[in-house]
Amino acid sequence: MIDTKTYQLTSKKYRNIFFFIFGRSLLQLLPFLIVWTLLLGWQLGRLIALYSLIVLIVAGFSFLILTFVKNLEPFFSDTQVQFDEDTLQITSNGKSASWKMGELKNVIIKEDYWLIYVTKTKYAYVPHNIFYSEDDFKKFKTYINA
After folding, report:
1. I need a surface site. Which of 17, 44, 68, 115 has the fewest CB within 10 A?
2. Contact status, residue 114 vs residue 126, Cβ threshold 8 Å
3. How many whole angstroms separate alpha carbon 10 and alpha carbon 19?
4. pLDDT tens for the chain, residues 1 to 146
């Protein structure tokens, strides 16, 4: 297994990730609201669409406020990634979780990090700057098919 440097998710980066995922959810809801508006007529459909968006935005900001109130210390703790061509292992707070590389659901590539979805809703944050060498970076990128 190839080791990486230890890294830590900051609250600012967490907020950026949260709003990115929240924005994707809004975009996925938009076609549904447009069809809903067309099916029910402009007046009633527009009202339902408006209330749906308001509820979604209020729920999103409520979740964000809850995360600031809640103890997220384990979430922001030191984390280390180990990998080989078959396995991705993430160690945080002395606890390890492993996944097969072929079973990763999705990989979202951002400018300075990856969001690796290990299930449909659970993701792992992996920054680009944690690798000891350029060769390790290229291997990791190949293994996750990014």
Report:
1. 68
2. yes
3. 14
4. 888 888 888 878 887 887 888 788 777 777 877 777 777 776 777 777 777 778 878 877 777 776 666 656 656 788 889 998 888 998 988 888 898 988 888 898 988 999 888 888 788 889 999 999 999 999 999 888 85
Domain ranges of the chain: 2-8+77-143, 11-69
Task: Tell me how far apart the alpha carbons of residues 20 and 11 are, in angstroms, rounded to a whole number.
Answer: 14
Residue 108 structure tokens? 């979202």
- The closest of 77, 76, 80, 74 to 5, measured between CA atoms, is 80
What is d(CA 102, CA 144) in angstroms, rounded to the nearest whole number?
8
One-letter amino acid at 41 equals G
For the CA atoms of 35, 41, 46, 48, the dihedral, rounded to the nearest 10 degrees, stands at -80
